[in-house]
Design a protein that fits this description.
This protein is mainly α. It contains seven helices and no strands.
Amino acid sequence: MSNGRNNRRLPVLMSIVAALMLSIVPLPTAIEPFRPDWVALTLIYWAMTLPRSYSVGTAWVVGIIVDVAHGTLLGQHALALCFVIYVTVKFHLQLRVFPLSQMTATVFALLALYQFLLFWINGVAGLHTESVTYWGPVITGTLIWPLVSMFFSGIRYRVRADR
């Protein structure tokens, strides 16, 4: 029984690890501000589809890992991810029935909320950065959300079919 449960959790955990790796891969400085928030997109998807298994606790642990990997204030990404994932879990039943266009607009709002919280925390800490570093990931994350959603839906379908 537990082996089947572990087989269902492995693709989710692997996708989170892949998102963490994509978030720290070096990019050229010209496109670095437009790196999508892979971790936020991944956690939003899994919190929306499996809210009992992957929610605020997962967001906290992954957020601390992101803080350590990026060298930012400890707890900055963890707090922002927890808040965004809380909102996602709170409204997951409504979000799952949205058509793709409305879901994309909702993900835009969630990513904007995530970046606003990071902006606010940086402002309180006295750290100032350019606005493109906040808006770039929101726009690129919104543009790739349909692809991310279809990719993870395919993974989820295959895991469900293997039962």
